[in-house]
Fold this sequence. Notes:
mainly alpha
Amino acid sequence: MRGDNLKEWIKKNGAWNKGKKHSEEQKKKLKLAWIKRKEKGLGISWNKNRKFPQYSGENHPMYGKKHSPETIRKIKEARKKQFGEKSANWKGGITPINERIRKSKKYKLWRKEVFERDNYACIWCGFKGNLHADHVKSFALFPKLRLEVDNGRTLCIVCHKKTDTYGNKRKDIPMKTNNRLLKLMKFLPEGVTTI
Ligand SMILES: [Zn+2]
């Protein structure tokens, strides 16, 4: 969705107008433009203050009637298509997980603890830069172990890429799940690249 993309963009880059203030001159111009729009009747919803006596109250086609169970079922079905699982915007129910992870201080703490235990060095080659906290048992498949320090290991990016759980190399889970995980990865905390 366009709006969502924009929100994400703003989150990443900050709003382009953040910290900028309109000058007095600009403010005047904006105000004038707004007044002009109003005079022309623009910017006002087409149905504002309009009444449709022919369709309201007793005249409404549904006045005093009830939808048949069949119609109710159809309405529900249509709603499902608009929202939720059947919607084209459905991303596999990942939002609650993203939210939890993104906001999670525990997760950052887990990373820090793993790094500290491994003395901020790759456990395979000893390199001390570009470190990732990797989940030995996959983030996706072992949710209960996500925050277990014992399930974490410090790897440099080079060694990390060699693991078979790095990025989208996962072959042990079906493609559908894999796509969902890829989307999820965008929301992982900084430095965590494996799920
Ligand atoms: Zn390494």
